[in-house]
Amino acid sequence: MSQVYIYDTTLRDGTQREEISLSVDDKLEIAKRLDEFGIHYIEGGWPGSNPKDAEFFARVKSLDLKHAKVAAFGSTRRKGITCEEDANLKALIDAGTPVVTLVGKSWDFHVHEILKTTPEENLAMISESVAYMKNQGLEVIFDGEHFFDGYLANPDYALATLKAAEQGGADWLILCETNGGRLPWEVEEIAAEVRRHLNTPLGIHAHNDSGCGVANALAAVRGGCRQVQGTINGYGERVGNANLTTIIPNLQLKMGFEVVPEENLKQLTHLSRLVAEVANLEHDNHAPYVGKSAFAHKGGIHVAAILKSPDSYQHIDPEKVGNEMRTLVSELSGRGNLVYQARAHGVDITPDQASEVLQNIKQLEHKGFTFEAAEASVDLMLHRARADYRPPFELVDFFVITERRQGRGLLTEAIVKVKIGDDIKLTAAEGNGPVNALAQALHRSLKTEYPVLEDLRLTDYKVRILDSETGTAAVTRVLITMHDGHDDFWTTVGASANIIDASWQALSDAMEYALLPKSQGK
Predict the structure, then answer these.
(1) Which is it for the CA torsion 28, 30, 34, 40, positive or negative?
(2) What are the pLDDT digits (tens) for 445-471?
(3) What is the DSSP string of 372-439?
(4) Domains annotated on the chain, with CATH
(5) Strands 139-145 and 99-105, sheet pairing
(6) By C-alpha distance, which of 239, 243, 261, 241 is closest to 252?
(7) Residues 496/475, Cβ–Cβ less than 8 Å
(8) CA dist 295 to 145, 316, 355, Å?
(9) Contact by Cβ (8 Å): 275, 267
(10) Pick from 142, 201, 212, 153: which is nearest to 177 by CA?
């Protein structure tokens, strides 16, 4: 089985995305996880460009990476000077990495218009820079910038730039699809043709401007490339780089290449979500392979089929990439959706009970509820359908008042009366708003009887107006996400023309869900 080597540039190209700014500690954390996953090369940044990258290269040596080689990125020497005089090359050497990646121009248009030099001088810049770095005992990767556009404009010169790097002793020659505008059949055909003229191993660096980043990377491998450069989650400048979280499983599971150890592939989903968290970005639920929705089934016919055979509507076993199969519950669901969810969470209900819950869900969704993002509310409905289920508490009533008092500003107070067993508890609490006061009062009334609620925290509160044309009489949907202070998160939903009532529905469900046996699902 042929090996494909993965070169991750999340820490350089990935940080060029809008909204991403990684600290040195962030970069070190990601580098450590990439190494554990089995990435072959980790590009840390451009050491001559900013103090942060210089600090990263100084500190990354202390990580004791087991698998990956760290690469420093820079350009070939500037025109008209020697390699010894070039500050960029000196910074690359001072970075102390075992690998350096040199980017050079492969498109004669850029040589003339951007570098403002001659084609011959550009070739000398490439070959001399590569040879200089090889003489330092380093592994050298040459990135042929704009290679595909350059090849289509002037194939002889584009090839000449790669041959110059090969003559200098480059270990890898990377075909860069820098503008992201080429199509897969072009990439495969050009890569295969280039392969015929060179002895040095080829790689691909693709961008996603035309939506073909992943496809172009796979096409290049078909054309003979054996190194793939990209970023986790496709982060990168403009619309992003080729997405490694899609490329890696496609190469390994679909195309039969050896990429990372099989057991490591199961870490892919975790790696994808960790990088999103470190980058402080919301993870893409709909990302192939690693998204929360990648193996989620909503249509009743689909779920009925997967109950008989999971492969009927899934292209792989999600466990191979560390993900999981889910069913979504909505007005489009069939009874099988609920049967699957009940089974997955250890709830024993009859088909008739499932049908009753399903009808209730459809009626509630007609009123403005939504359960796709509120699986905990569905779990509660399944439990409540059981004849032996007894709720841990019941609402008797609540009272909320908000006043604006001179000298004190706004003041909100809530009083909650709940029944726990045979006892009635009346609890009051202040808050910075009516929902916060309600949450404080309910939490205070329950935590003495149920100490497990002590660490419970509200982590997200979303409000959506469903029929804004009715103005202040509009139905409001509230989604609340809770965290148990340890490992579990769950989301519940409420809907009402009164935002406090909607919030109470979601809030009380979230508290009740926290008191389900821990053996039940999330």
Answers:
(1) negative
(2) 888 888 888 888 888 888 877 665 655
(3) TT-HHHHHHHHHHTSTT---S-EEEEEEEEEEEETTTEEEEEEEEEEEETTEEEEEEEEESSHHHHHH
(4) 5-260 (3.20.20.70), 296-384 (no CATH), 393-449 (3.30.160)
(5) parallel
(6) 261
(7) yes
(8) 37, 9, 24
(9) no
(10) 212
Interval 212-267: pLDDT, tens: 999 999 999 999 999 999 999 999 999 999 999 999 999 999 999 999 999 999 99
Find where tokens 């009940």 sit.
342
For a pLDDT cut of 90, what percent of the chain falls above it?
Answer: 47
**Which tokens is 294 given?**
């990648």
The DSSP output letter for 96 is T
Tokens of 430: 């202040």
Where does 117-261 have alpha helices with state H?
A: 119-134, 147-153, 155-168, 184-195, 213-222, 244-249
Bridge-partner residues for 207, per DSSP? 241
pTM of the model: 0.72
Structure tokens at 440: 């404080």
Beta strands 227-230 and 139-145 are unpaired
Q: CA 70 to CA 92: how far, in whole Å?
A: 12
**Closest residue by Cα to residue 184 from 216, 230, 224:** 216
pLDDT reported for residue 457? 84
